[in-house]
Design brief:
The complex is a heterodimer of chains A (371) and B (312).
Chain A: H1 2-18, H2 20-40, E1 48-54, H3 59-68, E2 74-80, H4 83-92, E3 97-101, H5 105-111, E4 118-121, H6 126-150, H7 174-205, H8 207-212, H9 218-248, H10 256-280, H11 284-300, H12 313-319, H13 323-337, H14 345-370
Parallel strand pairs in A: 1-2, 1-3
Antiparallel strand pairs in A: 3-4
Chain B: E1 5-14, E2 17-27, E3 32-37, H1 43-50, E4 58-63, E5 66-67, H2 72-78, E6 79-82, H3 94-104, H4 109-122, H5 138-149, E7 156-160, H6 168-183, E8 187-192, H7 195-198, E9 203-208, E10 211-216, H8 218-225, E11 229-234, H9 239-246, E12 252-258, E13 261-266, H10 275-284, E14 291-295, H11 299-311
Parallel strand pairs in B: 3-8, 3-9, 6-7, 7-8
Antiparallel strand pairs in B: 1-2, 1-4, 4-5, 9-10, 11-13, 11-14, 12-13
Helix pairs in contact in B: 3-4, 3-5, 8-11
Classes of the chains: A alpha/beta (371), B alpha/beta (312).
């Protein structure tokens, strides 16, 4: 078993080193993608293109618009006294927000009556629309309080004094949250695709059949075919964590050894899945399609983009079967919170269990082919 | 000595289709056993079952005494297999390919190095040992595949269409190698659809639609299945005229086009079973200057006779 597995592993390494494209997929692509995705996946909203429709044309209305758009959030792209222009800009996609200050705004404010302000937002990007609406509401509330104070009518009733303090990511940099997710996804894609396509290619070329008429045990084939890529996967994990720290200031607060151990368990499942898919697929095309249909839900259910608690309850249970979810939690835990073995025990057990199961399944599926 | 390949009622069905239908035969040590048939006649399916790549639906077979259904690993240890399609790694060198397949056979260390070195020497690949296999010409690839199948010195070799797509001179050289292997006591099971190659085989089995329709030495197959005397007729006349002149004549057992010539099989005691009589007959029918030459039956005649009976 040892001799045979080593022979397979050696052959895989030789082929990989000879094929420059596979090398690029294995090492360069993850780094590039981490960088690109890390910059692209960013939940911070700023520079929303905004149209100011000031029909009031008073000092008060100009003031309101200027103070609201002074920060980074809104970027004024157009000014018009006609409300219809604001709507037109939203429809044309030139603006995402239109702020309408109707005639009589200043007079109402001065008279102490409610002064109407309308915010039109493009709901097709729900996140942007919500952020813009909340910002305008908060600004209006502040302005109201300010005016009360100016009139000497300082509200005296006790009100809760909220003092937020953010743990683990004090600057609320969303990249620190996303980079671990990107890293787990990249590792999944690279190791899954390389093993699945490798075995499917051997099937197509007929070389697998030539291997299957030798007395080589199926376990040796599984181990030999995955071991080299497990090494590459560990290397990728190291690269990605280092690059995350260097480029995006993602900290590494926890144990490196724990990270490596979890990475090995994770790779067990991703490599095993790749082999399983290739064993069941007839050719490279089928393997690729299957990989696509498996990887996409794995990534979406991992909580990497949308947090698991936001999903419907039944779907939350389904995410427990997703190795990516567990590995993302481990990565975030170890990198950001210095979480230890005890904290992450459930995730580690889940990953290990799935890894062993997937590996046994793929060895069994292969030995079926052997018989 | 007992048979190295012992097949009894072997059957494989795919749904309603019976690819191999109750086939039985034995192959002795040192024998070259040819398995002939058209594409889709069940040759590859038989070989895949005997190599442990495909489970039989019914029947039984032992390879070097090991049952193919019960002990496929022991079967695989005793056989070498060359598939129809060249299936070594094109992106490895010959030396690396041999090293890998030796490892897959469980060979290691000095023993593996020695076998790989010997295989490279014997197959004339020493000079090309570090060229990528994909860059080798067809004939050398074939020799590499054979060397790889023999690395663990199996007692039985399965060759599935080993000379498909190989140049004629390389084919002859390949058959010299096969005969040398058999002379050492290895049982060789070879499928082919080159009927001329089957003449090299000690015994030949003819597959038609999944059934083994005939099994004997080439000489005996010809004697029993296509008895008679054979002539080829050449001439400037169109083949259709030659055919018309002889069709239905007394003692004519078969007419086969052969290139631009015509092959005629006649009853040995027929009046026409003589070159002069045949020439006279053709001249009477108005064929100008026919050239009639006696010839011997070949396996193609046997094969066509069998397929013809099947159709009738």
């Amino acid at each position: 078993m040892r001799v045979e597995a080593l022979a397979v592993a050696r052959k895989e390494v030789r082929q990989t080193l000879r094929d420059k494209r596979t090398l690029v997929v294995l090492v360069i692509a993850p780094l590039l993608q981490l960088t690109v995705l890390g910059f692209a996946v960013n939940l911070e909203v700023e520079g929303l293109p905004t149209v100011i429709v000031d029909a009031d044309r008073t000092a008060a209305s100009r003031d309101f618009a200027a103070d609201l758009t002074a920060g980074e959030l809104f970027e004024v792209v157009e000014r018009s006294p006609v409300a219809a222009d604001g709507v037109a800009a939203l429809v044309a996609g030139e603006a995402e927000v239109a702020l309408v200050l109707p005639r009589g705004f200043a007079r109402a404010e001065l008279a102490g009556r409610p002064a109407p302000v309308q915010v039109l937002t493009d709901g097709s990007n729900a996140n942007h629309a919500i952020v813009a609406r909340n910002a305008v509401e908060a600004f209006a509330l502040q302005r109201g309080l300010q005016r009360l104070r100016e009139r000497g009518a300082v509200p005296t009733m006790g009100r809760p004094d909220v003092r937020p303090r953010v743990l683990y990511n004090p600057t609320l940099d969303s990249r620190v949250y996303f980079v671990p997710g990107v890293a787990a996804t990249l590792l999944l894609v690279v190791t899954f695709i390389v093993t699945a396509m490798g075995l499917a290619r051997e099937k197509e070329a007929g070389t697998l059949e030539q291997v299957l008429v030798t007395p080589l045990p199926p376990s040796a084939l599984v181990v030999g075919k995955t071991l080299p890529y497990a090494v590459v996967g560990m290397l990728d994990l190291g690269l990605v964590v280092t690059a995350g720290a260097a480029i995006f200031d993602v900290p590494l607060r926890g144990s490196l050894f724990l990270l490596a151990f979890a990475g090995a368990l994770y790779l067990l499942t991703t490599l095993g899945l790749g082999l399983l898919v290739a064993t069941l697929a007839k050719n490279q095309q089928q393997a690729f399609m299957a990989a696509f249909f498996i990887i996409l839900p794995m990534v979406l259910l991992s909580g990497f983009m949308s947090p698991v608690p936001n999903m419907p309850e039944w779907l939350q249970y389904a995410t427990l079967l997703d190795p990516v979810r567990h590995f993302v939690e481990i990565l975030r835990g170890v990198l950001l919170k210095a979480a230890g073995w005890a904290d992450l025990a459930p995730q580690l057990v889940a990953l290990g269990g799935m890894g062993v199961l997937v590996f046994l399944l793929s060895a069994r599926a292969l030995s079926r082919k052997l018989a | 000595m007992s048979a190295l390949i012992d097949v009894d009622g072997l059957t494989r069905r795919f749904g309603d289709f019976t690819a191999v239908d109750a086939v039985s035969f034995q192959v002795e040590p040192g024998e070259i056993f040819g398995y002939l048939g058209a594409n889709g006649a069940g040759k590859s399916t038989t070989i895949r079952m005997l190599c442990g790549l495909l489970a039989p639906t019914e029947g039984r077979a032992t390879i070097a005494g090991h049952d193919i259904a019960r002990d496929p690993r022991a079967v695989k240890r005793s056989i070498g297999y060359m598939s129809q399609k060249f299936s070594l790694y094109l992106d490895l060198t010959p030396a690396e390919n041999l090293e890998f397949f030796a490892g897959a056979q469980g060979l290691s260390g000095a023993e593996r190095r020695r076998r790989v070195r010997d295989a490279l020497e014997h197959s004339g690949l020493d000079a090309r040992r570090d060229t990528l296999t994909g860059a080798l010409p067809g004939g050398l690839r074939q020799r590499l595949a054979l060397a790889s199948a023999r690395l663990h010195q199996p007692r039985i070799l399965f060759l599935d269409e080993p000379t498909a797509g190989v140049a004629p001179d390389a084919r002859r050289a390949f058959w010299r190698d096969i005969r040398a292997v058999a002379a050492e006591g290895t049982a060789v099971f070879v499928t082919t659809h080159h009927l001329d190659e089957a003449e090299y085989c000690g015994r030949v089995g003819l597959m038609v639609d999944g059934r083994l329709e005939a099994l004997d030495t080439p000489a005996e197959l010809k004697r029993t299945l296509v008895p008679g005397v054979f002539f080829t007729i050449d001439g400037d006349a169109p083949r259709a005229d030659l055919r018309r002149a002889l069709d239905g004549a007394a003692g004519v057992r078969g007419l086969q086009p052969f290139g631009r010539r015509l092959r005629v099989r006649l009853d040995p005691d027929a009046a026409l079973a003589d070159a002069d009589a045949l020439t006279a007959r053709l001249a009477d029918a108005g064929v100008a200057d026919p050239r009639v030459e006696p010839t011997t039956p070949n396996l193609e005649d046997v094969f066509l006779e069998l397929v013809g009976r099947e159709a009738a």
